[in-house]
Design brief:
Structural class: mainly beta
Oligomer: single chain
Largest sheet: 29 strands, mixed
Helix content: under 10%
Number of strands: 32
Radius of gyration: 24 Å
Number of helices: 1
Length: 333
């Protein structure tokens, strides 16, 4: 299907293969946008499923299956109007939306499956909303370089990179390899109040720049179970950002955290398991607070030194005391 005028297309079934334009294969090529409704047992195996320039509204439901090698949906605002996508079922390969802040665009994924190497890509001005019933399977990046991401549920297998403005997560799960979430923009704000975040070959969440907030600073007793952040190295690695720890549990097989915890609830501090691999929040008064490493209190000097060696941190003594036993330090310390 090819249209050079604003189109109004409704597809309720059928199989689509090749429609060549400029040597590239499309199921639909809309040169001036339009409205597209796809439902029923509709399948597409072309390089692109839908390619649209300009103001476009896309609605997908039921049992469609777009197994396209490049993009199932490729939309560009092209200074003509927003591209809005509503998905309520079916299986597609991936989505790209290119826009700008003059034409803010929205991708609502309420159910269905998206599976590819990179599943959802975009630009500044794009908001992606993920709901219960959604399954995203990405061998590389699940969501990359969009303005705002809201995760209300669902299962995401693949990492999320660089939410330009915000990522808000209240439920569901994210599982990545090198990390599950990477924050690398100074203005990025990632807020997680529920769900699970897991990395199988690195930190659960890595903060290069920007802000990560776990839970809410609401003056109640912090949750010690949700959100749950797990990494094969660290639960959270903070390189040069802000990390607010108000609720949850952090787990890392090397250490629960690496880098500074910027803020915690008043009267609370991060409490670590004996081997340092699990961290939750607890009342500071439960510790003698002999020493501190990167804002985290320890009730004996040896534990503080062991933690500092693991994360290349600095031990700060919080009180005068007498060392009762020998503490050995590595020669390079």
């Amino acid at each position: 299907i090819y249209s050079e005028v604003e189109a109004n297309i409704e597809i309720t079934g059928g199989t689509f293969t090749d429609c060549n334009k400029g040597g590239t294969s499309y199921t639909m090529y809309l040169a001036n946008g339009g409205i597209v409704n796809i439902s029923g047992n509709t399948t597409s195996t072309t390089k692109y499923g839908l390619y649209a320039d300009g103001k476009t509204d896309v609605n997908i439901s039921e049992n469609i299956e777009f197994t396209n090698s490049w993009y199932s949906i490729y939309g560009r605002t092209n200074n003509k109007g927003p591209v809005n996508i509503e998905i309520n079922g079916g299986k597609i390969s991936n989505i790209y939306v290119g826009t700008n802040n003059s034409y803010k665009s929205t991708v609502n994924i309420r159910s269905g499956e998206i599976k590819s190497s990179d599943t959802i890509l975009g630009t500044d001005g794009v908001t992606v909303n993920i709901y219960d019933g959604v399954k995203i399977i990405a061998s590389n990046n699940a969501i990359q370089n969009v303005s705002d991401i809201n995760i209300y549920g669902g299962t995401i297998n693949g990492k999320i990179i660089n939410p330009i403005n915000s990522l808000n997560m209240i439920g569901g799960s994210i599982t990545g390899k090198a990390y599950a979430i990477e924050i690398n923009d100074q203005k990025s704000n990632v807020n997680i109040t529920g769900g699970t975040v897991t990395a199988t070959n690195g930190p659960g969440i890595r903060i290069r720049k920007g802000t990560l907030t776990l839970g809410k600073d609401d003056e109640g007793y912090p949750s010690t179970t949700s959100p749950a952040i797990t990494g094969s190295t660290y639960g959270v690695q903070n390189d040069d950002g802000i990390f607010n720890f108000y609720d949850g549990i952090l787990t890392g097989y090397t250490y629960a955290t690496n880098g500074t915890i910027s803020n915690m609830p008043k009267l609370f501090s991060a409490l670590y398991s004996s081997d340092g691999t699990i961290a939750i929040l607890g009342i500071q008064a439960s510790f003698e607070q002999v020493a501190k490493v990167n804002g985290i209190y320890f009730d004996d000097l040896k534990s503080a030194i062991d933690a500092a060696l693991k994360v290349n941190g600095t031990v700060e003594l919080c009180k005068d005391f007498t060392i009762q036993e020998e503490i050995q330090l590595p020669e390079e310390t």
